[in-house]
Amino acid sequence: MIHVNGEVLLSAADTDLIGKELRENGLHINVKREFYGEASVSRKTLEEAMKICTIGNFVGEYTVGIGIEMGLIDPENIIKISDVPHAQYAKMRF
Questions:
Q1: What pTM did the predictor assign?
Q2: Cys-Cys with 22: which of 1, 16, 79, 81 at CB 3.0–4.6 Å?
Q3: Going residue by residue through the chain (94 aa), what tens digit of pLDDT does each one get?
């Protein structure tokens, strides 16, 4: 997680996607270690991080699936690149 200007950014991807580049129909995502990290964490740790993040960038069936189960991600707002789900999350503050 990264803290920037009062926001908490969490970038999380399925471990098997780290280091891969996905391209399809003009869409492109590079699942870089530098951005997504290389630490493998437990489901509980990922859920706790998702609870406190204000901005999320999630890639992969497992990771995006947890976001859906937690109610953070609407399944209709997921894009797929090379059959890999990608979702972004932003917590609105009023």
A1: 0.89
A2: 81
A3: 787 778 889 999 999 999 999 999 899 999 999 999 888 899 999 999 999 999 999 999 999 999 999 999 999 999 999 999 999 999 876 6
